[in-house]
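re: ur question from the group chat, yeah i did fold both. here u go
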Amino acid sequence: MKAGDIVLIDTNVILEAHRIARWHHLSSNFNVHTVEKVIEETQTGYQKRSTEELIDQKELTESFAKVYAVSEEEIAATMMISPEIFNLDAGERDLLIYAASFEGDCWLISSPDSAAMRAAHKQGWLDKVVSLESLLETINCQPYIALRENYTKKWDEAKKSQIRLGIL
């Protein structure tokens, strides 16, 4: 992993990166991509969020190299091939549908959700899943505020091990 890599970002990573005031560092050092549904999800649930997690939609959208619109046709086609993906929330589902459009090893995905990680594993992408902590370390950007546990390398590696062993 290196600065400039394509990283597909889910809602939770966006919220955590804003909470720790590191979103600008991520979005300016990686080629960050997401899907429209993820952007939409960042704008819901305000009553449960701290001030740091309130995000301007226009600024957020502009910070991405690409915001992909997943079509109804893509969703329907995926349902036929990978029905397990529909156990995920809509943002994670659409992000994994978008991931399927990439060829080669030129991308990574950052999602601190074990269900999304299991779905990525079924697609053969578990090694492409990276923690927010790993992304920040790659660009030498240490947060001043501690990351929540599921954004750390330790949590990420533990979940990957459990998935590979069939425990999770």
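okk and heres the other one u asked abt
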Amino acid sequence: MPPYSSAPVRSVPSGSPGALSASAKRTIAGLSLWWPASPLAFVLSTVVGLSSRDRDPFWEVASAVLLWSGIGGVVVAPSLGLLIAFRLRQRPARRRFAIMGAVSLVVCALALLFWEFAMECAPGQAC
């Protein structure tokens, strides 16, 4: 009798979650969490920027870092996450990052539309 089993050895398919390394899982999780945290970064950036009346350089830098962190969360997290999910062949992550990108695109389009309407001159006023 042979010392090993005659059952075939099955490898884990590349698209299953078991095939991912720990760093890839952490990267996907981090990008997935960065996106919903970006509105909080925008709000904190506004609060810090408006509450800093004495124009302390520290609070100006903190406001700028929070602002760019929010912008990065809206733009960079979905695109980089989608790229990584395509590379690792992760269908649920691809779906999640595609939805995140679509929502980000709609929010950015609405923000630009609001900005355009906000910059319009009132009737009778010279701009």
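fwiw on the second one: The longest helix spans residues 57-88. The helical segments are 22-51, 57-88, 91-118. idk if thats what u expected
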